[in-house]
Design a protein that fits this description.
It contains 26 helices and 22 strands. With about 750 residues, the protein is an alpha/beta fold. The radius of gyration is 29 Å and the shape is globular. The structure holds thiamine diphosphate. Thiamine diphosphate binds next to strand 5. One of its GO terms (molecular function) is branched-chain 2-oxo acid dehydrogenase activity. Its cofactor is thiamine diphosphate.
């Protein structure tokens, strides 16, 4: 297996250097530990690794050499890990089907889709391990996900990447939480060209981590081991025994593997001879784990040198045969499509010369990717000028573009019957004269009923457990449902959300709290790189339906105003972004999201918790649909589009405008992503012909997004009788204090005056 893996690494390198593929990174020098690890892995376990690690897949027979090469060649039809969307080395196994049903997670080893940003996998791994803990202690949880919490989350990380903050944050949390997570640090002495001495204190991550180690007489630490990555007996002695301990005790562990090598260098982006000394390179040759393994096998009589030579030859043959299959399969498919296209070309036509020129160009293509065929056809269409492309070629072009779009872009959000976007509105039921309650009490009632009905629901974050969140939405709920369901965490946004991500991948439904919107940026790497892309980058075979609950808008001060949403809109395509104007709307959105299978962020209005609202009689069932704006005040003179805390301001402004004879309609977009799926806003604009967009994001932020959606996507420009205005916060961050707020954010009078400008234009 080791030899097959090494040959595969060599092929990956060669295929990149000879132009068959664009980028290669692989396992050379890091095979042996994975074979030892394979012995300790059980069905139901999870992996959160980095951009290497095909040896383990081969050892566990989860994937074939052809599968791995299909990813290298970006073969969208055959790459089982990422449908041609990720570079080689980013593995994944399916754990949800295309109807949105969970597969049996206990049937095999589960690989959570790997990402390139180094160390990011740590936070997800923490969550996968944490889910085991919940399955061991929880009651009434769904089956098919866990065998009493016995599953280990195996995380792997390169030595240089341990310098990232999230590595430390996660290991600290793993110690605090006591979760079954084994982190292997794969130490080859370098992070591309930078040696470990320049990366890690004392040049050793196991030494640097020593304070986390559980010493005799202590509880609450983690196990730390140090082994040479070429030492097969030590590796096989360590992994299985460590795994049984971690399964039983749920105590996390780190395995620091040193003296690993990179026979082919870090990746295909450069050669390591440039930065490694001659001595180091000579040492690497000798201490290559497979060379050492060979010495050991011969010395212990496990095999003769000639047997091993024979194995080497067989491995080479096997990999070369697989390479041929993977390449031929792709090439034959591409050539078949090319031939089908060429067969549609005319043999006689007034423009035959032009057609023939393109036919020849297409026939000359060495590797006729669909994008190249499409591009040639678009150029042909351009060159034909006034003459339309023949109908059969037009049809081909339309179908091919559709296919490419689907191959590359499907599954950004759920496309299953469980998609929350499919859920229609179910209006709240209230009666005349029903008393109102402070909004935080409405949330308490809401979450209490939800937690009673669904044992898989969890809520956690900073100050969520004991005091029930800083705004009391969960007050008293920990007492009622216990610390296991509603609990506090450390101040560590990235890994808090990672905890939720891993749980949600294993059938649990976490509502994880970021205390204030301003601090979500500490979790942004995970949200943007991992959560937002998970479903898309696995072609819909993995999902993480978690909800991030946070609060923002309308408080004061640089770091408590919660205004900036554009960075989220820009970076979180793949996550729903809900901006309820009050807590009733928030509850309706939670209802929709909890019935669905997508991740979402809900930003509650910070200064809304003490306002009074009526509790709907169908509080836990009514649904606010995603992507449907609501018109809160009809009007004929202009349309004011806004969301969140600004809704209240705009409604007040509309009253003042009415007193001066201007009839403004006010529309709450409700969810920024998805945005107005039925294009209702353009329809409103067609009646008022004037548009003002109000929010408290920076100029050119969310208001620019809304403008682009209405004017460009919905073609609202056709209905305009005047200039469109966006009223936003100031360029600087919102200062603290009344004057700062007045100068920094749109006020009622700003909306009134901006409306006059729009109407009088
Ligand atoms: C967050 C982040 N920063 C930088 C990079 C670019 N990069 C890719 S691999 C690498 C070195 C990683 O070294 P190490 O963690 O030791 O793992 P190795 O590749 O040596 O196994 C760097 C800097 C990245 N992928 N992610």
């Amino acid at each position: 297996m080791c030899r097959v893996s090494r040959e595969l690494s060599n092929v990956i390198r060669r295929d990149v250097l000879t132009g068959r593929a664009k980028f290669g990174v692989s396992d050379d020098g890091k095979e042996l530990y994975q074979v030892a690890m394979a012995r300790a892995i059980k069905n139901g376990d999870w992996r959160a690794d980095y951009y290497r690690g095909h040896t383990l897949l081969l050892a566990l027979e989860i994937a074939s050499v052809e599968d791995i090469l299909a990813q290298l060649y970006a073969d969208a039809k055959e790459d089982p890990f990422s449908v041609g969307r990720s570079m080689v080395g980013h593995h994944a196994t399916p754990f949800v089907d295309h109807d949105g049903n969970w597969l049996d997670h206990l049937a095999g080893f589960n690989i959570s889709s790997a990402t390139s940003p180094t160390a990011g996998q740590m936070a997800r791994g923490l969550g996968l391990a944490f889910a085991s803990k919940k399955y061991r202690s929880g009651e009434g949880l769904p089956s098919g996900f866990s065998d009493n919490g016995n599953e280990i989350a195996w995380t792997e990380i390169g030595d240089a990447s341990t310098s990232e903050g999230v590595f430390w944050e996660t290991l600290n949390a793993a110690g605090v939480l006591q979760v079954p997570m084994i982190t292997t640090v794969v130490d080859d002495g370098f992070g591309i060209s930078v040696p470990v001495e320049k990366q890690t204190t004392k040049g050793s991550i196991s030494k640097a981590l020593a304070g986390l180690k559980e010493e005799k007489g202590e509880t609450g630490g983690i196990e730390i081991h140090h082994v040479h990555g070429w030492d097969y007996p030590a590796l096989t002695a360590l992994y299985p025994s460590l795994a049984s301990r971690v399964r039983a005790t749920h105590r996390a562990a780190v395995v620091h593997l040193t003296q690993l090598t990179q026979p082919n260098g870090h990746s295909t982006s450069g050669s390591h001879e440039r930065y490694k000394s001659k001595e180091r390179l000579a040492w690497e040759k000798e201490f290559d784990c497979l060379v050492q393994f060979r010495h050991w096998m011969i010395a212990t009589g496990v095999a003769e040198a000639s047997d091993l030579d024979e194995i080497d030859k067989r491995a080479k043959k096997e990999v070369m045969a697989a390479r041929k299959n993977a390449w031929d399969r792709l090439n034959n498919r591409l050539k078949k499509r090319r031939n089908e296209l060429v067969a549609l070309f005319p043999t006689s036509d007034p423009s035959i010369e032009i057609y023939n020129k393109y036919k020849e160009a297409i026939n000359r293509l060495d590797m006729p990717n669909i994008s190249e065929l499409i591009d040639e056809m678009r150029r042909l269409r351009l060159q034909l000028g006034q003459t339309p492309l023949l109908p059969q070629l037009q049809e081909w072009l339309r179908d091919a573009r559709r296919e490419l779009k689907t191959d590359m872009g499907s599954h950004l959000l759920s496309e299953t019957p469980k998609s929350p976007v499919r859920l229609p509105a179910l209006p709240p039921k209230t009666e005349e004269g029903q008393p109102t309650v402070p909004a935080y009490e409405l949330l308490q009632k809401y979450f209490t009923a939800k937690f009673e009905n669904n044992p898989a629901l969890y809520a956690f974050g900073e100050d969520v457990g004991h005091i029930g969140d800083v705004n009391q939405g969960f007050a008293g709920l920990q007492l009622k449902f216990g610390e296991d369901r509603i609990f506090d965490t450390g101040i560590r946004e990235w890994s808090i959300v990672g905890q939720a991500m891993g749980m949600s991948m294993r059938g649990l439904r976490p509502i994880v709290e970021i205390q204030y919107l301003d601090y979500i940026f500490y979790a942004l790497p995970l949200l943007t790189d991992d959560i937002a892309t998970l479903r898309w980058r696995t072609g819909g075979t993995q999902a993480c339906p978690l909800i991030v609950r946070t609060r923002g808008h309308r408080l004061e001060g640089i770091w408590h105003s919660g205004s900036y949403l554009a960075p989220l809109i820009n970076s979180l395509r793949g996550i729903h972004l809900c901006v309820p104007r009050n807590m009733t709307q928030a509850a309706g959105m939670y209802n929709t999201l909890l019935q669905g299978d997508d991740p979402a962020i809900v930003i509650e209005v910070l200064n809304g918790y003490r306002l009074h609202e009526t509790v709907p009689q169908n509080l836990t069932d009514f649904r606010v649909p995603l992507g449907v704006p609501e018109c809160l005040r009809p009007g004929t003179d202009l349309t004011i589009v806004t969301y969140g805390a600004c809704v209240k301001i705009c409604l007040e402004a509309a009253e003042l405008l009415a007193s001066r004879g201007i009839d403004a309609e006010v529309i709450d977009v409700q969810t920024l992503m998805p945005f107005d799926l039925e294009h209702r806003l353009a329809d409103h604009l067609s009646r008022t012909n004037r548009l003002l967009i109000v929010d408290e994001d920076a100029p050119g932020g969310t208001s620019a997004f809304i403008r682009q959606q209405i004017l460009e996507v919905q073609e609202g420009y056709q209905h305009l009788d005047g200039a469109v205005k966006t009223l936003t916060a100031a360029m600087h961050r919102p200062p603290y204090g009344d004057d700062g707020d007045y100068a920094g954010k749109p006020q009622v009078m700003d909306v009134v005056e901006a409306s006059f400008e729009v109407v009088e234009f």
